[in-house]
Every structure is written in C-alpha cells, then in structure tokens.
Amino acid sequence: MTDAPATDTPQQAELKNPFSSVPIEITISVGKARPLIRELLTLKRDAVLPLDKRVDDAVELYVGERLIARGELEEMEGDHAGQLAVRLTEVADLQDGLG
Which GO BP terms sit in this record (predicted)? Predict the structure, then answer.
C-alpha cells in the first residue's frame, strides 16, 4: 500500500517560497482608442472617446505585458457595492499563456 502524496497548506507553501506572499499588480484592459493626433489635441472635459470594444466584450488581464486571463466586468454588492470587479471566464496556463 502506497501513501498518497501530501499536499501543502497555503501556509506551508508560503514558507517554502517567500515570494508567494508578495503582491503583484494586474492591469485590466477594457479596450483601446485610436484618435487622430489632431482629435487628441482638441479633447476637453466631457469629450467622448470611443473604444474598440463593446460593453459586453471580455476584458483582458495582464501582468506586465503578459496576458494571464479574460473576464467580465461586474459591480460588487454588499459592503463593496458600486466597486468594479472582474469575474474570470478564461485563465491562462501560466507556462504557455492564453491562445
């Protein structure tokens, strides 16, 4: 009879790799705008800058330049009502990235 491999608790994993508790910044991209420079120079408050995405399109999550996931924007509820959040719909294999 063989024993099943032991899995580390999050605390044990953190002790083995001190970098696991370092925060990382994720950038959420909702779209890009491509105005002409002459249009950009005339932008004023309340100007509308159209993006290349629709409201229902997926947003993309990046760490640096690397795409790590896609998701949908949603509004949080309860104590955090009004705060934006992202519900992940696709997560990259961090070894190979998203296709």
Answer: bacterial-type flagellum-dependent cell motility; chemotaxis
**Band of the pLDDT at 52, cuts 50, 70, 90?**
very high
- State the SS3 of the chain: CCCCCCCCCHHHHHHHCHHHHCCCCCEEECCCCCCCHHHHHCCCCCCCCCCCCCCCCCEEEEECCEEEEEEEEEECCHHHCCCEEEEEEEECECCCECC
User: Quick one: what percent of the chain has pLDDT higher than 70?
Assistant: 80
* Tally of structural domains, the chain: 1
Q: What is the pTM of this model?
A: 0.70
Domain CATH number, residue 68: 2.30.330.10
Bridging pattern class, strands 84-91 and 66-75:
antiparallel
